[in-house]
Design brief:
alpha/beta; Maf protein; seven-stranded mixed β-sheet; globular
């Protein structure tokens, strides 16, 4: 039986494909800002995890008895939380702010069946952004926009986004947007993968 991936993220689909996990992609129709409104005071990892659960629950409601994988990522830098940029101008502003700082990327995932969250986890990667010149930012966005507009942190590590960083602490799956090793372990425990 295949699981449902409650996401349209190409990187999350690529991770599951590479790991040999059968899935059907059904993006969640969810007002993330409305969910976040009830999470004031929560730590970033808790917010990412709660959004993962909410996305999975939204899809699970229409797919009884199916196991649904939800996932979310968020970025904190300089004490501020960043969402996906709303425009290319805002993307450039984000990149100028990130320049020379450490970006904390929280990636979370949850497995939900019907009303029950059967597993959830959050992981952290710390990405050291090098000093970025205005000309580099312009060149980068000319090549990567609008694709990076769908990415929290304004980067795809598997593309030109790797040029933003001088060091990365954390596993590659967290950076790609999902704690894959945890997901695979949970799928084995739930009998969805061979153990």
């Amino acid at each position: 039986m295949t699981i449902i991936l409650a996401s349209k993220s190409a990187s999350r689909r690529a991770m599951l494909d590479a790991a040999g996990v059968g899935y059907q992609a059904i993006p969640a129709a969810l007002d993330e800002r409305a969910v976040e409104a009830g999470l004031d005071g929560c730590a970033p990892d808790e917010v990412a995890e709660a959004l993962s659960v909410a996305k999975a629950q939204a899809v699970a409601a229409a797919n009884p008895a199916r196991l649904v994988l939800g996932s979310d990522s968020l970025v904190v830098c300089g004490g501020r939380r960043f969402d996906k940029p709303a425009s290319r101008t805002q993307a450039a502003e984000h990149l100028r702010f990130f320049s020379g700082k450490i970006m904390e990327l929280h990636s979370a995932a949850a497995l939900v069946r019907d009303d029950a969250c059967e597993w959830s986890q959050s992981s952290l990667a710390r990405l050291h952004v090098r000093d970025l010149s205005d000309s580099f930012i312009e060149h980068y966005l000319a090549a990567e926009w609008p694709d990076v507009g769908h990415c929290v942190g304004v980067f795809r590590i598997e593309g030109l986004g790797v040029q933003l960083f001088e060091a990365i602490e954390g596993d590659q799956f967290t950076v790609l947007g999902m704690p894959l090793l945890g997901v695979l372990g949970a799928l084995r425990e739930l009998g969805e993968l061979e153990s």
